Structure formats: structure tokens, C-alpha cells
Amino acid sequence: MIGRGRVVTEMSQAYSFSRRAWLLGAAQGGVGLLLAGRMAWISVAQNERYTSLSESNRVNMTLLPPRRGWIVDRHGVPIANNRTDFRVDIVPERLRDKDRVLALLARLLQLPPEEMERIRIDLDHASGLQPVQVAENLDWERFAAVSVRLPELPGVAPTRGFARAYPGGAAVAHLTGYVGVPNVEQYKKTHDPLLVTPGFKLGKDGLEKMLETELRGQAGAKRVEVTARGKLVAELATRPDVPGKTARLTIDAGLQDYAARRLGTNSGSAVVIDCRTGEMLAMVSMPAYDPNSFSDGISHLEWQMLSDDDHVPLMNKVTQGLYPPGSTVKPMNGLALLESGVDPHARVFCSGALRVGTGIFHCHKKSGHGPLDLKNAIMQSCDIYFYEMIRRLGYDRVAPIARMVGLGQKFDLPFSTQRFGTVPDSAWKLKKYKDAWTVADSLNASIGQGYVLANPLQLAVMASRIASGRHLRPSILADHVHRDAPALPLQSENLAIVRDAMFGVVNGGGTGGAARMLTPGVALAGKTGTAQVRRITMAERRSGVLKNGQLPFKLRDHAVFMGFAPADNPRYAIGMVLEHNGHTVRNLDSPLIARDIMTYLFDKDRAMASLAEGEKSWGGDIQTRMAATASTYRAAQAPHPAAIATKTDAIVPSDAPAVENATDQANATQAALVTPGNTVAEDGTTEREP
């Protein structure tokens, strides 16, 4: 049976058509609303974005590295400044047809084959947007030759800007540090486009790193109108950069340079402090690297040369070096004795040796000094006097005075590498070694050996506080000077006794007679010291102790000095350590160097005359000696091409493996010399004569 079909009427057809039309119209209206909304969003809400994109198609903007703020000395003399620089870099990510571009650059810039090899190696190790230096310090003709051929040189970035310069060279290396190209890790932290701008450099070490925020400034921008194909149409208004702030130091640039030169061929350091304010006038560590070379980008070969040098030029010995202060602590020990009620006229008989228990502790003078009071014990640097007095008193009565005058302290200075040494006592040893303090520990500490460690800055602070009687705090930034230091809680008559003894060390027949100043009306008060770095066996003592000149460099004693001048009205204080100097060369020994550095502050002509005479026998000035060393090293190494490639700044001098190795070696030596039954005090060699 066939069912009845649906009847379609005219009315139902009209209704169906109307519904479809309505749905279709609604859909069209919805699409229209979406399009209108999108257009409104783009034209209103996203107006700024698309205007910027449109503008960027028409205008190319290039960041201009800001001029870095100068670092100047107390008189405004530049220590780090800027020079006009024409340079060419390559941005690897934008480089196309590398071989053709490099060949054209070699012809335009007249680059030698070894330099082209260096550029190729640098490009192979570069990443992304990190610029690779092609050449800097270009003359205008070569710079212009590249600039006019830019359409043929994709990825090449010629820049006219400013490069960092250090007029003092190596003399200021460990003071200023240096600037260098930011590395990839630094860019990833901030994604600051300035960090990948050709020609931009930031502080890598020293004050350049610690004062980066103040010195950097704000980038400028160069705008040019171009066609869709990148062809230049017109140069638009350029936004100028905002230079960084000038950092004024308390340093005297002339004294800094003189002290660096006067250290000669030593591996050593010196600090000079103003006894009225605590301002640091010089902070020198030598030998050192040339910060100009580091800022340009040193080669692997130069880095290896510096790393191999047993004088460790990569180390800032002022802040990173720790040494036994030797006999330079004896004036401080004298203060501790006087403050504890010891009669300054009480005498101790020095026969040359002192038996304590089963041990025999020697004086540096084998035949002994005879009976000595406090003043003469300091003047003659008698070990037996201090062994005996501090054995009676206990070193726990000395340690607080040592800290009061600056030993063991970390100072508020813009250096990230400051090590602050050790002032030991019974509580310290118990906490660190879980062991009780012994008499041998006291005897070791009494002559500035054993667990006692200090850096040259602390020695200078100690000298300045004894000289002034005030709690001076060292400063190196001119706007952070700690003025009006409070008086030390010490009796003035005790300070006077110790100052008089230090005057006698240099001017009254004491151990530091070589430091006597020749400037009329100015006397230097000081204390010499010898810090032992090896154990002298009884067998060697019986056969005759070897002279320092007979020993390898690393086994020679350190030469130490601290003092102040004028003795009757202290104005300047000095602290100095000469590593493994061994008192082997008279005009390179600590007393004469300290004398000349202090003389510079009162009589520059006399000081310069002394320096000129000495430099003739040392192989010339710093630059001449460094050039000769580099030439000899290069000839011996016969470097392969990769050795001349630019070293990255991932590791900076203060963090170099060579510095860590030197520190580890010094720590191991110190630990060996405080082993029970193996103490330096038993040798008594803190003032061995040359």
C-alpha cells in the first residue's frame, strides 16, 4: 500500500524561503560584525603597534652605544677615558655569502692573512647576534671605503663611536679592570638590544664592572629612511646618547703610576693611604695585564702567556692575595702588651733560642740580641722577646687589638674579590679545627706567621690607624670618603711608645735602616717583615740555612713592609708585600721601594731620579718589559692559527684558573707550616738578612 506524500503548498514554500533568507542574512551580518570588530581592533586598539611596524618598514633605527663615563683621579686626571673610534664588525646572523664578504673586507681594509684567519675562527665560534670584531681604530679612508660598499656587505656593521682607553696601561689594570663585548649569557638574562649592538662594551672586571650602572649611560639612536629594498632615501633626526657619569676616585694617578713602576720586576703589591681621611692614594698590583689589550679583545696566546707566568699577573694581589704579615705585626703586638699592662721597660734576654716544652724556637739572629725592652725588641725585630711576652700573656689578649687596627677586616670597597685573612684565637681554632689552642700557636702568631694572614690593604690600614690613633676606614670613591673617624680606644701614651719604636726601626739603627728617607725634614717610621713559605729542617740548620738566592722563586720568603710619614706628624701610610722577593736584590727590596714611594709624595724629582736609575737595570719601563716578554713567549710557542683567535670573556682575570691555582698553593703552604711540630716559630726566620 502506497502512503500519502506531503502536500507542498505555496504558503509553506514562502515560509521555508523566508527562514533560510533570515539565517543567511544573520550569518552575513555576523561575519560583517566580526570584520568590522577586527578592523576596529586593528585600527584603534592596535594602532600603535601597526604604526610602529609601518614606520619600521620605512625607517631603519640603529642603536648608538652611549659614551661611557670617565674614571678620573682625585685631581681630575683621566684613569679611564674614551677615544674616537672607527670600527667594523660583523653580525653573524645577518652575514650572507661569507667568503665573498670576507674577501671584499680584506681588500678594503688591507687586512693581513693572519688577521683574516682570526676573523674566520671568531665567526665559527660566535653565536647569533653577538658581533665579531673585524677591525677597530681605523683611519677615515678605510672606514669610508666600507661604508660606501654596504649594499655589497650584508651583515657588516661599520660604527663610528668611542672606544675605552686606559692611559696608565698595566699600572691601573687591577684598579679599573676593563670593558669587553657582552657574551651570550649576559644577553639572555636581559634581552637588552644594546648588548648586541656593534661597538658596545660593558665592564668585565674591577671598577669597570662594579660601577657599570653609573658608567654606562643611555644609548642613542640613528634613524634613516629607506625603500622597500633597503636603499637609503634620507637620514632623519638622530637621538643623541646620554653619556655615563664620571666616577672620581681618591687615587692619585701620578703616585699610582710611580708605585707600579717602582715595584720593578717584583711580583708584589702596594697600598698608600691618607692618614687624615682613609682615602686610598694608590692601589697597585704588579705584574699586570694591559687593560687596553683586554678591551680590544686579547688572543688565546696572550691569555695563555699571562696564565703561565709564575708571577701571576692576572691576580689582584691587593685584594686577592693573603700572606703571613711576618714581623710587621710586632708594633701591633707591642700595643697589645702595653694595653694589657706590660711595663715597656721590662726586659727579656734573647740568647738566640727559647725552649718551650720539647721544642726550641729560634730568633732570626742566631747569636741572640741580649736583654731587650719593648722599644728595642721592635727596632731589632727580636723574635724571642715576643715569644716570651705573648707566651705569658696569651694570644687571646692580642687578637682583639689586631682586629682593632685592621687585620682580619673586610672593608666597604667596590671590589668583588676581597679576601680578608685571619686573626686567630682559641675560639676560632676550636670552631674551625675542633682543636685546642697551643703555646706553639701563640708563638707562631707572635711573629706574624702560622694562622695569621693579611692582605696589603690591611697592612696599610694597620699602619694608618697606629699613625693616626683613629679608626680610619679606607675609601676609593671620592664621594664615599669616611671622614671624622673616631679615636681608637687605646691609650695615647702607648701609641706614642710604639710610634717611637717604629721611628727607631728606620732611623735609629733598627732592621729597616735602608728605608731612611733622604728628603730633608721628613722621616719615615715603619716595620720590616719577612714571611716564610717553607719549613727549614734541623738537618739544613746544622749544615747551614740556604740563602734565598739559592732557592727557586716559589720557595723564597716574602718581603713585607708597613709604615707612615712624616713620623712626627703622620700624613701618609703604606703597606707592601713582595711575593718571594727573598731580599735578594737591594734596589728591588721592600725598604728601598717603600722609601721611594713615600718620597714621591714629598719630593717627586728625587723619587723620579731614583726610579730612572733603577729601571735601567730592570730592562726598561713596564711597557718595554711587557713587549719583550710577549715577543719571547711568542717565539718559543710558535703558535698555531687558533692561538691568535680572540678569547671570549667567559672567564675574567680575577676568576682565572691561574689565580685559583696560586690561591690553592698558598693555602696549602700555609697549612703545612702550622702543622704541629712543624711550626715557623721554631725556625725564627722572620727577619733573615739578605
Automatic annotation (TrEMBL):
GO biological process: cell wall organization; peptidoglycan biosynthetic process; proteolysis; regulation of cell shape
One CC-aspect GO term: plasma membrane
Coarse class of the protein's main subcellular location: membrane
Region (Disordered): 670-690
Top class in the EC scheme: hydrolase
Domain Penicillin-binding protein dimerisation: residue ranges: 65-235
Domain Penicillin-binding protein transpeptidase: 268-598
InterPro entries membership: Beta-lactam/transpept, Beta-lactam/transpept-like, PBP_dimer, PBP_dimer_sf, PCN-bd_Tpept, Penicillin-binding_protein_2
SUPFAM superfamilies: beta-lactamase/transpeptidase-like, Penicillin binding protein dimerisation domain
Alphabetized UniProt keyword annotations: Carboxypeptidase, Cell inner membrane, Cell membrane, Cell shape, Cell wall biogenesis/degradation, Hydrolase, Membrane, Peptidoglycan synthesis, Protease, Transmembrane, Transmembrane helix
Residues that span the membrane, as ranges: 21-41
Localization per Swiss-Prot or TrEMBL: Cell membrane; Membrane
E.C. no: 3.4.16.4
GO terms for MF: penicillin binding; peptidoglycan L,D-transpeptidase activity; serine-type D-Ala-D-Ala carboxypeptidase activity
Keyword Cell cycle listed: no
Stated name of the protein: Penicillin-binding protein 2
Gene field: mrdA
